[in-house]
Every structure is written in structure tokens, then in C-alpha cells.
């Protein structure tokens, strides 16, 4: 990734200090390592391409509707009562003998909407980091890129329904500058859902509903209601829900207006089983346990084949939805992979 030595950007901090108290049923993962430090020069190398692909709406690139604060002249007309006197054009007023005001075209700014999966499965990891660590780093990078050129960033979190009696997690509303970056850092410090709590929404008397229980699908369905202007929508998740591809159609709807980036995070043990004898595995979403004999070559081969088939289905679904797919792992250089994909 490109680097620069002039005007260095402060690195994204690696916040591995003592955790804050849990909010709304979220907890800090016990084995949290943090995403690591991010070099500011690397961020500068990927900021412009990723933003321009989103909506082509960097300040000054395109005109917004109507008039307002801006730099490009929209209209020069006689002054009327109620106009801002600061907009009086001295030259035009002198030429015509009556006061004239200048109206400008407001500059459109790009808004990046980040949807973060905070379900219990994100707190799993067997390599250098947890999936939640990589997710934190990806969110911070996307947020830093989104605030460049006067852009705004918002953060939505999903996957914690069932973790608390009050499952609503506050939205970090669209804003720009260091203020929103601090708000996102505080939201990330809230943590993720604890183990054994389903991400699905229970239906009275019927338990979990695969059709209605996938919060990623629900989040995508709600996205057009909050993100009404073209921008960037980034989804950071492990894509492990009740209904594997229920999100495909809502994702396609969102990508009609926005540039959508799906950042999928996996761990090596979710791709290939080791030969470790009989293991008791636990589903972090439901708390269900299962004993498996990993010494069986047939089982390991079947698991690997199922994983490859699942990944192919996911990649094909994201391409059909006309979204961008970025695949990160806990054992790789997630920043280099993310930066290469966003160029």
C-alpha cells in the first residue's frame, strides 16, 4: 500500500486498556487483542478511490439541489428583505445602483453508513486476533476514510437482539470530524453480545424464526429509510445468520442507490478443522454444544467442502447484488487486504 512521509496522519489507536462497563447487554470479549495500530500513510493511499466509487460526491465534484452555503455561484439577484446581508455582492450593487446578493450552490458531502455485526460469533478467534478485533479495525479505517473531504459517517450495530431485555442499540448519527470518530470509538468500546445469546428475534410461542430472525436482513431492509441519498454503505460481519442468503435481495435494493461494501471476517478454524481428536464445540449464538471427532478424515473433508461451497454461494450472492466483497481473516494482514480492495 502506498505511503507518504509528509504531514503524517496520527495512527488509529489500539485501545486495549481496561474495558468499559457493559452497555445494553454488550460485553468486551475476554480474549480481546485489539486491531493493532494503523499507519496513517496507508489510509491516505486508499481514501480517495474508495470515496469516489461510493457516490462520486466529494465536495466540489457535483452540484447539490437548490442553493445554500457553497463556493459556486448559483444566482445573482436584487436584494429582498430577509436576505443575509453578508451575501451582498459589492461589484454588482455598484454596477446596477441597487443591492444585489449572490446565492451559491451547496457542496454535497459523502455519507458513509457502517453496519457492524456485534453478535456473539464475532468474538471468536483462534489466530492472532478475534474476529471482533478485525471488525473494530475495519470500522475505524472506514470511519476515518469517510470523514475525509468533509464527509460524514454513521454507525449502526446489529446482532445483539436476545442479549438484553432492551435490545435497541443507539445509532451513532451521521456527523463529520473528530467528534463522530470519538463517538464511534465509544460505541466500539461497548463490546459485543455475550456467548449463548441468539442473534434471532424470538417469536412468542414459537422460538426463533429463521425468516424473521436474521438481523442483517432486517438492517438492510431499514437502510433505505435512514440513508436516503447516495453514499457508501459498509457492512462488517461474519455472515453467519439463521437464513444464510436471506440478505441477498435487501442487499441488492441498497446497492441500487449506494456503493455497498460487504466486509466478511472469518477465522481459520471456521474454514478447516484440525486433527485434534474428539472436541466439544459450542454455538456462541445459541449455546448449543456438539461433540465431533476431528480425527476422522471424512469429517474434515466434508467440513472443508461445505465451507468452500458456502463461501462460493456467499460471493456469488454479493456479486449478484452488485456489491463489493472484501474477505478478511484473523490470521492475515487485514489492513493490507482491506486497503487493496478499496483502491
Features:
343 residues, alpha/beta, Rossmann fold, two-stranded antiparallel ribbon, disordered N terminus
Describe, in plain words, how this protein is organized in 3D.
It is built from 8 helices and 12 strands. It is of the alpha/beta class. The strands form 4 sheets. It has a 6-stranded mixed β-sheet, with helices on both faces. A two-stranded antiparallel sheet has the order 1-2. Strands 6-7 form a two-stranded antiparallel sheet. Helix 1 (40-55) packs across helix 3 and helix 3 packs antiparallel against helix 4 (177-189). The protein starts with 39 loop residues before the first helix and ends with a helix.
Summarize the structure.
The chain is an alpha/beta fold and 343 residues long. The chain has helices at 40-55, 90-96, 131-146, 177-189, 215-226, 248-255, 297-320, 334-342; strands at 70-78, 100-106, 111-117, 152-158, 172-175, 202-203, 207-208, 232-237, 259-266, 278-282, 289-293, 324-329.
Topology diagram in text:
Elements: H1 40-55, E1 70-78, H2 90-96, E2 100-106, E3 111-117, H3 131-146, E4 152-158, E5 172-175, H4 177-189, E6 202-203, E7 207-208, H5 215-226, E8 232-237, H6 248-255, E9 259-266, E10 278-282, E11 289-293, H7 297-320, E12 324-329, H8 334-342
Parallel strand pairs: 3-4, 3-8, 8-9, 9-12
Antiparallel strand pairs: 1-2, 4-5, 6-7, 10-11
Helix pairs in contact: 1-3, 3-4, 5-6
Amino acid at each position: 500500500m502506498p505511503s507518504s512521509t509528509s504531514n503524517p496522519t496520527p495512527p488509529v489507536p489500539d485501545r486495549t486498556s481496561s474495558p468499559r462497563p457493559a452497555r445494553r447487554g454488550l460485553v468486551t470479549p475476554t480474549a480481546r487483542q485489539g486491531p493493532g495500530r494503523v499507519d496513517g500513510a496507508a489510509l491516505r493511499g486508499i481514501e480517495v478511490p474508495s470515496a469516489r466509487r461510493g457516490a462520486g460526491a466529494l465536495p466540489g465534484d457535483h452540484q447539490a439541489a437548490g442553493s445554500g452555503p457553497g463556493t459556486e455561484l448559483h444566482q445573482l439577484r436584487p436584494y429582498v428583505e430577509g436576505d443575509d446581508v453578508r451575501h451582498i455582492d459589492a461589484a454588482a450593487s455598484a454596477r446596477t445602483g441597487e443591492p444585489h446578493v449572490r446565492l451559491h450552490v451547496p457542496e454535497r458531502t459523502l455519507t458513509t453508513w457502517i453496519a457492524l455485526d456485534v453478535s456473539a460469533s464475532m468474538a471468536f478467534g483462534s489466530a492472532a486476533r478475534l474476529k471482533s478485533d478485525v471488525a473494530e479495525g475495519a470500522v475505524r479505517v472506514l470511519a476515518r476514510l469517510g470523514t475525509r473531504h468533509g464527509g460524514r459517517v454513521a454507525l449502526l450495530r446489529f446482532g445483539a437482539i436476545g442479549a438484553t431485555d432492551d435490545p435497541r442499540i443507539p445509532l451513532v448519527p451521521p456527523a463529520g470530524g473528530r467528534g463522530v470518530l470519538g463517538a464511534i470509538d465509544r460505541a466500539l468500546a461497548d463490546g459485543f453480545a455475550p456467548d449463548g445469546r441468539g442473534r434471532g428475534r424470538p417469536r412468542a410461542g414459537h422460538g426463533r424464526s429463521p425468516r424473521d430472525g436474521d438481523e442483517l436482513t432486517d438492517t438492510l431492509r431499514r437502510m433505505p429509510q435512514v440513508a436516503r441519498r447516495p453514499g457508501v454503505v459498509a457492512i462488517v460481519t461474519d455472515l453467519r445468520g439463521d437464513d444464510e442468503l436471506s440478505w441477498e435481495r435487501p442487499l441488492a435494493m441498497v446497492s441500487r442507490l449506494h456503493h455497498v461494501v460487504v466486509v466478511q471476517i472469518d477465522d481459520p478454524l471456521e474454514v478447516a478443522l484440525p486433527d485434534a481428536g474428539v472436541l466439544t464445540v459450542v454455538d456462541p449464538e445459541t449455546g448449543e454444544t456438539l461433540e465431533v471427532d476431528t480425527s476422522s478424515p471424512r469429517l474434515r473433508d466434508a467440513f472443508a467442502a461445505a465451507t468452500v461451497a458456502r463461501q462460493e454461494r456467499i460471493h456469488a450472492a454479493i456479486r449478484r447484488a452488485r456489491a463489493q466483497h472484501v474477505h478478511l481473516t484473523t490470521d492475515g494482514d487485514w489492513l493490507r487486504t482491506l486497503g487493496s480492495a478499496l483502491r
